[in-house]
Specification:
476 residues; binds adenosine-5'-diphosphate; Rossmann fold; alpha/beta; 6-stranded parallel beta sheet; single chain
């Protein structure tokens, strides 16, 4: 169960994982069905979704929900929770158009979690019952709590943490609105510093915990990365493991990608330059291959460390180099990138919106991909960039540390170097790594080697899906 599902509703990596992991699991013979909220985009994409069950009064407090059953075009069975009063509204998945959280998010995702628990408890009309409820992130964290209180032996539970910084914390009065018993509001329950935390509930009650990379699994057990939940996570370390996300290798493949003007693979990576020209034209930068083009594709949040790049951007473009930035999020960061682009039209372009085609063109057309995240649970973009022969410059954290191998004498000799890694989240450290990348880019032979090392890597879901299957098997 999950609150996003690519391509219809997605704010980031979560929606991608929701669309790709179930397919990989089904290929291994696991009978996975995905439960999602009935956002208009989902219902619109599935006009033939039939009614599967009606939940008029879940726990006596939550709004009525109609469960619809359908299949995605990729053949993944879906359950969709229809409840127009909660899911049909203009705006974002979690916030209104002004970036303010929906005031009823606890009900929107509490209902989703409650329906999951109901399905797991057995609903005659559905005729199918899961042995395991696998929830993802805070939006689904109450499902293990509902199961614990309403149907303790109905199913085993796995809670995957895609980002521990987002916890779904609500006022204590919501306990009653969500139909949880008073005793749940305790230190070994859903209570978190006097409030109700969805993610804490998931971590507390789930049988197994996973995160989306091995390094992040270690990091979130430390004060620096645990966002207050590190103590609880340490206490549950014996059931916590990190499994690296895969990517959708069909949609993100430079040899078949429809959004590119020139497709290519490892044997003809030099022809990727046609995409660089196309990208430069699209974002109105001078068309040239004499300077390296640095690409950024990111949500604008503190996490992503883009302020570090802003701090050194003037120095970087004087190298000379070009920078293209695509993203949306915090308005202050967007304004700074737009100001930079206005002041240096020849060197910097900023596109502030969600733009899938441009995202693909950046992965293919940039020379160097920049991802200076302060923390990064897994990160998909660096895997896309490696696959597209666009070596990434990343900070040594989470999934970035698990996928990017710093270019140095030893790793070059071993044939494993695929990018540039820096340790400290400081502008100076980032600048040094960018300098190394630009210097290496000028050595075309060394650069090709780096590109090919990255392009050879396997980021498919098979290996990770096997680990999830083993985890499920161990649970039942
Ligand atoms: P996160 O989930 O933290 O945002 P990830 O790197 O795991 O970061 O995943 C981000 C996903 O969202 C990628 O598929 C990326 O291509 C996509 N994405 C992010 N911002 C944009 C944007 N402005 N336009 C198009 N795609 C975007």
């Amino acid at each position: 169960m999950v609150s996003e599902l690519a391509p219809w509703v997605k704010t980031g990596g979560l929606g991608e994982v929701a669309a790709t992991l179930p397919a990989a699991l089904r290929a291994l013979g696991v009978d996975v069905r995905v439960l999602v909220p009935g956002y208009p985009a989902v219902l619109h994409a599935l006009p033939h979704a039939g009614a599967a069950a009606d939940f008029p009064h879940l726990g006596g407090v939550l709004p009525r929900a109609l469960l619809r059953a359908a299949e995605t075009p990729a053949g993944i069975p879906l359950f969709v929770v229809e409840c127009p009063q909660l899911y049909t509204r203009p705006g974002g998945l979690y916030q209104d158009n002004n970036g303010v959280d929906w005031p009823d998010n606890h009900l929107r995702f509490g209902l989703l979690s409650r329906v999951a628990a109901a399905i797991a408890s057995g609903v005659d009309e559905i005729g199918w019952r899961p042995a395991i409820v696998h929830c993802h992130d805070w939006q689904t964290g109450l499902a293990p709590a509902y199961l614990h209180y309403h149907a303790p032996h109905a199913a085993r539970t796995v809670c995957s943490i895609h980002n521990v910084a987002y916890q779904g914390v609500f006022p204590p009065r919501t306990l009653q609105e969500l139909g949880l018993p008073p005793q749940a509001f305790a230190i070994n329950g859903v209570e978190y510093h006097g409030k109700l935390s969805f993610l804490k509930a998931g971590i507390q009650y789930a049988d197994r915990l996973t995160t989306v990379s091995p390094t992040y699994a270690r990091e979130i057990q430390t004060e620096a990365f645990g966002f207050g939940l590190d103590g609880l996570l340490r206490s549950r370390a014996d059931v916590l493991c990190g499994i690296l996300n895969g990517i959708d290798t069909r949609r993100w493949n430079p040899a078949t990608d429809d959004y590119l003007v020139q497709r290519y693979d490892g044997s003809c990576v030099e022809s990727k330059v046609a995409n660089k020209s196309a990208l430069q034209r699209r974002v109105r930068l001078p068309v040239t291959d004499d300077v390296p083009l640095l690409g950024v594709l990111s949500r604008f949040t503190h996490q992503k460390g883009l302020d570090l790049l802003l701090d050194v951007a003037q120095k970087v473009i004087r190298q000379p180099a070009q920078i293209v930035v695509l993203g949306e999020g915090e308005k202050a960061l967007a304004a700074k990138f737009m100001a930079l682009a206005r002041a240096h039209r020849e060197r910097c372009a900023a596109v502030i919106r969600f733009d899938e085609p441009l995202a693909h063109l950046i992965e293919a057309g940039a020379d160097i991909f920049v991802m200076p995240s302060r923390y990064e649970p897994c990160g998909l973009n660096q895997m896309y960039s490696l696959r597209y022969g666009t070596p990434p410059v990343v900070r040594a954290t989470g999934g970035l540390a698990d996928t990017v191998v710093d270019c140095n004498e030893r790793t070059v000799q071993e044939g494993t170097a695929n990018g540039f890694v820096f340790e400290e989240p400081t502008p100076a450290a980032l600048l040094k790594a960018l300098d190394r990348a630009v210097t290496t880019w000028r050595d075309r032979v060394a650069w090709r080697r780096l590109q090919r090392n990255g392009m050879r890597m396997d980021f498919g879901w098979e290996a990770s899906a096997l680990r999830y299957r083993d985890l499920y098997r161990a649970l039942i």
